[in-house]
Design a protein that fits this description.
It contains 23 helices and ten strands. The chain is α+β, with helices and mostly antiparallel strands and about 625 residues long. A six-stranded antiparallel beta sheet has the order 7-6-9-10-5-8. The chain has a two-stranded antiparallel ribbon with strand order 1-2. Strands 3-4 form a two-stranded antiparallel ribbon. Helix 3 crosses helix 4 and helix 3 crosses helix 5. The longest helix has 30 residues. The C terminus is likely disordered.
Amino acid sequence: MEATIKPAYQKELFGHPAGLYILFFTELWERFSYYGMRAILTLYMLAKVSSDNPGLGWEEGKALATYGWYTMLVYVVSIPGGIIADKILGQKMSVMIGGWFLVAGHGVLSIEQDWAFFSGLLLIVLGVGLLKPNISTMVGGLYKEGDARRDKGFSIFYIGINVGAAIAAILVGYIAAEYGWHYGFGLAAIGMVLGQLVYIYGQKYLTHVGNKPDPDSTEEASVSIKEIFQRMLSTKKSLAVLVLLLAISFVIPVQFMESEVTAYIVFFIFLSVVVGFMMTVYEDLNGKVEKDRFIVLLLSFLIVIVFWGAFEQAGGLLNIYAQQKTDRFLPVFDYTVPAAFFQSLNPTYIILFGIPVAGFWAWMKRRGKEASSIFKMAIGVIIMGLGFFFMVFATLDYQANGEAAIYWLIFAYLLHTIGELSASPVALSFITKLAPLRYGALMMGLYFAATGLGNKVAGIIGESSQAESITVVLKADQDQLMRFVPNHETDSIFQKNKAFTLETQLYKNASGEVIFEEVNTDEKINSLFAFEEEGSKLELMDRIEPYEVSVDDKLLTYLKFDYKDGRYVGRVDVDQFQTDLEFKTFMGIIIFTVAFGVLVILLLKPLKRLTHGAEEKEVEGLEAEGFEIADDEIK
């Protein structure tokens, strides 16, 4: 009797469908490309145009704002990405198309042209939007309903995410530091190509999942976005609120914002529509139970925003801090660690501490202690916020020694990750339990929107931590500057028009004039440059006024020059002023996150009553602690 040959999609490997490992390696390489690029993105935007490893030469505030917009869009575009898959293409084709968008995006970023930067980011946003929400759905589709292996399958899948992210920051960071930013972006593109090759090869193992939806299917129980729009526009209260918010969306950016006005108008319009959706859903809910749960759902979204608004300083503000103010030299290896390496700490910590943290919460639950989802989320916010205490110590260390020790960032990322492991995995599961069944898909989309909004908040916080630029123009020639630049750097700087920095002491003389004194020669160098605008000089005067500077009490100040458009343009960085801003930012994050988390805990009992037992609901594939430990990307 001949043995029955199983079709490829029914084959198993190590007790799981073979398709799981196809998706595992596809996602591993996709996350390699995404997190590798993310590790160097902010640093590339900051690198001076005329440096040995040239970048865009942007100010820190602009770079952090752009980072916030980009990471927000990655999550927000996941909403239409999921809809396109569900209604038109199917998850399998959406992942394929998204992957090619990502290959193109990372490839374009590797091109050393100005047009390539935003074009590459746009392609990556579109690619992640199509791939990110759909590949996880395909993992679930590999298992039949009730299959006990499902949760372990998800855990294996999410290990791939963190392995890819950890390796990426190190490899891409090293290549970018040693050979150039665009080679780093190119390596990310190669990683994505490998992911696509794995995915193409493995199609025979995925023939039964993620296929195009059946247009004649009547199984859809969820309320469509079109229906919600119709209800919102036909309800007087919702329509009135929407019109008011849309008007405010134009007034606030035009009247109160000096830059990115159009972007913020679109941003506020999006938020207005989200608020309109929420009101429409609330009005449509049946009975007290659903409405009570919806209130808790809104608080959960707020927790998500607060958490990621602080946590996502990792790729922005903390990345800059690692580059500019952290002593990254390791004497034992005689090697300076690239700043991008620090981005590997979070995924590495997840791999190391995921099981212990999940085990701790399971132990708490078995002992009858408080281990509800709301409590975990609140504790996660608090622990993550406390991680910024190490950054406060880092600023004090920098102020005292001119550099911050490397271990401050290592400890900060550790607490951030412990907080993430407590808060992030349960958030989506809890929101799924609270959402009415007919609005489940919409609530999933709003969860991504809340995560995206948190990322935008992170960009705003990072931007606010940076002093506004005070621009100066170089007036001196090479002969006048030579004595202020180390001899071995003179030729490379002035013959090749490279960036350079002058370290000075700033003070006011008896007549109130601001004096810049070069630190090595004690020479006054005011004649070497001129303020580009009269307002810049006044801004500097206002900035140093609180410090009561004098000839006996000077402020360390850097004049940083970059060669752009045929001339040297510089900026004045008052070191103490910037350090104070960062100190206030880190302390502000600590105070707000801890206070917010404590407030949620104080409201825990009434909030749990409002859930009406939703905490006990089982959500397929999301409930087991084993799944939660690796669920870093359902966020």
